[in-house]
Structures are given as C-alpha cells and as structure tokens.
Amino acid sequence: MLRGGFPVFERHFGHGDERAVLLHCALAQSKSLSRLADGLSDRLTMIAPDMPGHGRSAAWDHRCNIHDQVTAIARDCLGKSGHVVGHSFGATVALRVALENPRAVRSLTLIEPVLFAAAQESDPAALQSYRDDAAAFAEALRQEDWETAAQAFTAVWGDGRSWQGVREAERARFTSQMHFIRETEEVLLHDHAGLLSPGRPEQITCPTLLVRGADTHPIIAVIHQTLARRIPNASEVVIPGAGHMVPITHPDPVAQHIKAILNAAARQTLATSGPVRHLPQ
C-alpha cells in the first residue's frame, strides 16, 4: 500500500472505537509493538506501518529526508483524527505529526523519544557527555564502517543482548540499516525539522504522555525535561526495571498509562464540545 507516496507494509490491531497510529523504533518493525497493541485493542483500532527499509516495507531509496518521509507515512495513516503513539525514532515522528497537525491528534504518547537536540535546552553538559560517549559510533558512521556502527548502536539502544548474542541474520540486518540511522541525525541531533523552534511545542494542546524506562540511557530523562516543560499538557511516567525497549519488554504497564491518556483526551473533548444535545422527537 502507498502511504505518503511510499510502498509500505502495515499491520492492523484492535477493534476499539477510536483510531490510532503506532510508530516503531529504528531497526525494528511494526510487529515489535504487537504486545502493546494487544493491551489497547479494546479501546483503539490501530495502524502500525513498517518504516522504509524495515520489516516488509520497500527498501529505502533515499528519495528525500527520511524523517520527512516517515512523517508523511504516519500522517497518511492517521487520517482526519486519532491518537499517535511512537517509540524512539518513531516518537520523534509522532511529535512532528502532532506539531504539524494539532487538530488531528487527540492524544500523543512519546516513548523514549531520541530527539537529542532537546537535551541542549535542559542540560548542555549532558548532551555533550552523550556525544563524547558516542564519538566512536559517530566516526564509524562517517567512515561507513556499518558493522562497527551497528555493534555500538545496539549496545546502547538495543534490547540488552550482546553483539555476540544476536543471531547472525539479525546482525546482518542491523548492519544494513545503519545508513538509515545516519540519515536521522539531521533531525535528531540538529533539529533541521524545527521541532523545537520557539513557540512550536507550546502549540500542542492534546494530552501528552512521556514514557521512559528507569534503566534507560540518562540522556532520555534530559530530553523529557525539555519536552515536559514546553508541551502544556505533558506528563511523564517512568517504568521500573525497564530500559529503552520498554514498550516491548513492559507492554502492560505502558498500555495502562496510555489508557489514562486516552481517558484524559475524552475528558478534554467533552469539555470542549459540551454534552451531546439530542434533538426533540
């Protein structure tokens, strides 16, 4: 199916009354969010696209900026109105969808958003420390040493397995996807999409949930500080015992917190529109 003009494979979950889009993290696919979707299936009817070069979607052909393309796919999946849930890179896309289509997004859930540029506003030293720690990874990307880059990337943002503990086929797939990671840096590190422009996050009025694992990389907490301060209706939850892959390893508590945000969105809609008035018979 074409979504945002790109050939995309998508999964459908749930049977609820409201529409939602689920956006997976880089190096994963829509299937990775299936257990989270199960926990929301009574409330939402969900579309989860595979990003370009991921899962069963077409290979990425570099036709444009990758963040632009994934945003176009997500916006197409959302349609006129619904809820948006994103994990990691997918969370940065979810944020952009809400920024560009504020009336269409009823609630926004950002799980471990890797918008590193946001850390600059709250703790520049923490961002610099992160960049120093990731210097070898950045150099591997620059040199197109994809396997070294993949090993370094998954050590920080993976599911806890060592590189040797990852199956050979997965190692090959992660290695082949490192060019995708390199293309994300324009937005994630330098905010070329202007997601943090003055006054922009402040325009998001829907209930917004920030989710992170208690054991994730410390830079995520700093990113959350900026987003929680700048998005008016934002709240944060921290899942004990979880890392960066919290929606995959701890789907049940994440789903319960998302349901609370769905309830907040319903109350906001009621407060805005008022009670339904039935016409006299």
Overview features:
two-stranded antiparallel ribbon, seven-stranded mixed beta sheet, alpha/beta, 9 strands, 16% strand, 281 residues, Rossmann fold
* CATH superfamily annotation: Alpha/Beta hydrolase fold, catalytic domain
Secondary-structure element series:
EEEEHEHEHEHHHHHHEHEHH
Radius of gyration, in Å, reads 18 Å
Looking across the biggest beta sheet, what order are the strands in?
A: 3-5-4-6-7-8-9
Beta fraction of the residues? 15-25%
Helix-and-strand structural type: alpha/beta
| Architecture (CATH level 2) name | 3-Layer(aba) Sandwich
Approximate helicity band: 40-55%
Number of domains: 1
* Count of individual beta strands: 9
In the predicted model, the low-confidence regions spanning at least 5 consecutive residues are: 276-281
Number of helices: 12
Task: Give an account of the 3D structure.
- By secondary structure, the chain is of the alpha/beta class.
- The protein has one domain (2-119, 188-272): 3-Layer(aba) Sandwich (Rossmann fold).
- Helices cover 45% and strands 16% of the residues.
- It contains twelve helices and nine strands.
- It has helices spanning 34-40, 66-78, 89-100, 119-122, 124-133, 135-142, 146-157, 168-176, 178-188, 218-230, 246-249, 251-273, and strands spanning 2-3, 6-7, 10-13, 18-23, 44-49, 82-87, 105-111, 208-213, 234-239.
- The protein has a seven-stranded mixed beta sheet with strand order 3-5-4-6-7-8-9, sandwiched between helices.
- Strand 1 (2-3) and strand 2 (6-7) form a beta hairpin.
- Helix 2 crosses helix 3 (89-100) and helix 6 packs antiparallel against helix 7 (146-157).
- The longest helix has 23 residues, at 251-273.
- It is globular.
